[in-house]
Write a structure and sequence with these properties.
Elements (H helix, E strand, L loop, with lengths): L1 E2 L18 E3 L6 E3 H6 L24 E2 L1 H4 L2 E3 L6 E3 L31 E2 L12 H6 L15 H8 L3 H14 L7 H6 L1 H6 L3 H26 L10 H44 L5 H8 L4 H35 L1
Antiparallel strand pairs: 1-4, 2-3, 2-7, 5-6
InterPro entries: DUF2628, RING_finger_1_prok, Zinc_finger_PHD-type_CS, Znf_RING/FYVE/PHD
Keywords: Membrane, Metal-binding, Transmembrane, Transmembrane helix, Zinc, Zinc-finger
GO molecular function, one term: zinc ion binding
């Protein structure tokens, strides 16, 4: 790790000691006491960052490095933090450490909203862009504009499987296309939308499923069981209607599977914009994660409601068939 002992904090001008909590500006590399950095609301040299300013220690204040660790560590190209030589991503900001791989511009890594920290309490950070880099290396940057929303904000909002959505949003932004294959939406329909907190599409497609699939299936079962409830039903007309509903239901499935990602993007854009307008930049990541992500509770509740409705309708339909034998026994 870099040792700034003896260097002076630009804010308070007090030399750093071995026990000080030192943070480093991700743009220019200037070290600060954490309290000083927060009190100053950022780097003291922020107005010079655009000109490519790089902090240099005063003569006699050269930071030292532990000689025993010098050969086993490499410096992050984005934030300057020291990392194990065998690492692939920076433990402080998540940026790639290898020159051959995709890189963040200085200060633009996932942790650029706050200073990189050094010390025993420094913990590895989750890298929401790793999946996207594996899918198409070098094609996605945290500052990329995806439908009016930065990729970094999308990553905080999306939660699980962010890489898949990020790369599809990137492709949609570049090509203007709206189609993207989602097998989850195709096979699970409204339950996928409930899981991803898309309430309006979830309600619409659940209604279509109930009247276009569940109820027709129940009626078909009653016809086969020769239930008195469908005694006057014209079987030819019913068969035709049933075939039409099957085609419509299949078309709905394909629509869900091909447009779910696009709808998710449009809904997400509005929610992210609302969140960013209502909170500070420091609060944004947590607020976006809460607003977005997935809801296992919504998935379980929706499945339970549909299953309960189907059981209730089945019981009501079968009740007359069950009552007839009981009446015969009573006689």
């Amino acid at each position: 790790m870099a040792d700034y002992t003896g260097c002076k904090c630009p804010v308070c001008q007090q030399p750093f000691t071995e026990k000080d909590d030192v943070v480093v500006c991700p743009e220019c590399g200037a070290p600060y006491h954490r309290d000083c950095y927060q009190k100053n609301a950022g780097c003291l040299f922020a107005d010079r960052h655009g000109a490519g300013f790089e902090w240099k220690p005063a003569p006699g204040e050269m930071p030292n490095r532990d000689a025993s660790a010098a050969g086993s560590e490499i410096s992050c190209p984005a934030c300057g933090a020291m990392n194990p030589a065998g690492g692939l991503f920076c433990e402080s900001c998540g940026a790639p450490l290898r020159t051959g791989g995709p890189r963040y511009a200085p200060g633009s890594g996932p942790a650029a909203s706050g200073p990189a920290s050094y010390g025993p309490d420094t913990a590895p950070q989750y890298d929401p862009y790793a999946g996207a880099r594996q899918t198409a290396p070098g094609q996605l940057h945290p500052e990329d504009d995806l439908g009016g929303v930065k990729a970094r904000d999308w990553a905080a909002f999306l939660g699980p499987n962010a890489g898949y959505y990020l790369m599809n949003f990137k492709r949609m932004t570049v090509t203007g296309q709206k189609l993207a294959v989602s097998f989850s939406a195709f096979f699970f329909g409204p339950f996928y939308f409930f899981y991803r907190k898309m309430w309006l599409p979830a309600a619409i497609f659940l209604t279509l499923d109930v009247f276009g699939a569940y109820i027709p299936q129940l009626l078909q079962f009653l016809v086969l069981a020769e239930s008195p409830l469908v005694a006057g039903l014209n079987l030819d007309v019913f068969s035709t209607v049933l075939n039409v509903l099957r085609v419509v239901n299949l078309a709905v499935q394909f629509t869900e599977g091909l447009f779910a990602v696009y709808w998710y993007r449009r809904i997400g854009e509005k929610r992210i914009a609302r969140v960013l307008q209502s909170c500070s930049p420091a609060e944004a990541p947590a607020a976006l994660a809460k607003e977005g992500g997935v809801s296992l509770a919504a998935l379980i509740v929706s499945l339970s409601v549909v299953l309960g409705l189907y059981i209730m309708l089945s019981f009501m339909a079968l009740a007359p068939l069950m009552a007839a034998p009981m009446a015969g026994l009573a006689v």
